[in-house]
Amino acid sequence: MGGFETIIGRIKHGLNLGADAPPADGAGVRPPAAPSRVLDASDLRAQFIAALSGAGGHPIEASDEVDAADKIGALLGSIGARSAALGEGITIDSKAMAARLAGAGCEITTVDAQGGPPVSAFKKRLAENDAGIVEADYAIAATGTLAMIGAPTRPRSLSLIPPNNIVLLRAARILPNLAVVLSAVGTETIAAQPMVLITGPSRTADIEKRIVIGVHGPKELYVVIVGDGGTTPRTVAG
């Protein structure tokens, strides 16, 4: 096992142990606690929504992709967005999404493997867009965190540059904690592609030690949680 895989393994091991691990010398060992209840999909979804809201994000629930597109279109209208940049989907049909959003009266710029502007030109235009729309790879229910793996057709700048960050999240990809997310992504993917963890809108305390929103990134984070609609999400390579 290489050094990188060893580090990831230690992180996952530490996250699984948590603060309840007994000291190495055995002092102060407590009786084993009763096993905690395993959260089901609806529990994870509810936990994620609560944590996301607590971090300043805005959860939006959608039954399927069509409902998600309609709700994003309504959201773009409510925030006064006239243009949005859309990355290629992981489980979401981004072409169908773009067509439906364009029908709602918003100018949509897309980047994908089959069409759209070159990635370099796409990134230059991002700052001119009112919103960036991108699908998250996974989410962490316990903290309301989104795991985003960068790719040429889904650049990280989509969730960093426009003032409004709209993230599509397949409900089945809400996982309990970071350890499970790391296992789902896999060490090969983590080593080969950049991954960022996003919890709430951009914020900083560099200015007079006061929390300021949106200085280094989006001022608003909207997460559209999409039901499976009877389909099986594709698996991230790794």
Helix fraction by DSSP (H/I, runs of at least 4):
25-40%
Radius of gyration: 19 Å
Q: Into how many domains do the coordinates divide?
A: 1
Task: Find the CATH topology.
Answer: Rossmann fold
Overall pLDDT score = 79
The number of helical elements comes to 7
Can you identify the CATH superfamily? Answer: NagB/RpiA/CoA transferase-like
- SSE pattern: HHEHEHEHEEEEEHHEEEE
Q: How big a fraction of the residues is strand?
A: 15-25%
Distance between the termini: 16 Å
Helix/strand/pairing class, anyone?
alpha/beta
Largest sheet: 6 strands, parallel
Number of strands: 12
Descriptive account of the structure:
The protein has 238 residues and is an alpha/beta fold. The chain has one domain: NagB/RpiA/CoA transferase-like (Rossmann fold), CATH 3.40.50. Helix content is 32%, strand content 22%. The protein has 7 helices and 12 strands. The strands form 3 sheets. Strands 1-12-7-4-2-3 form a 6-stranded parallel beta sheet, with helices on both faces. Strands 8-5-6-9 form a 4-stranded mixed beta sheet. A two-stranded antiparallel sheet has the order 10-11. Strand 10 and strand 11 form a beta hairpin. Helix 1 runs antiparallel to helix 6 and helix 3 packs across helix 4. The longest helix has 15 residues. The C terminus is likely disordered.
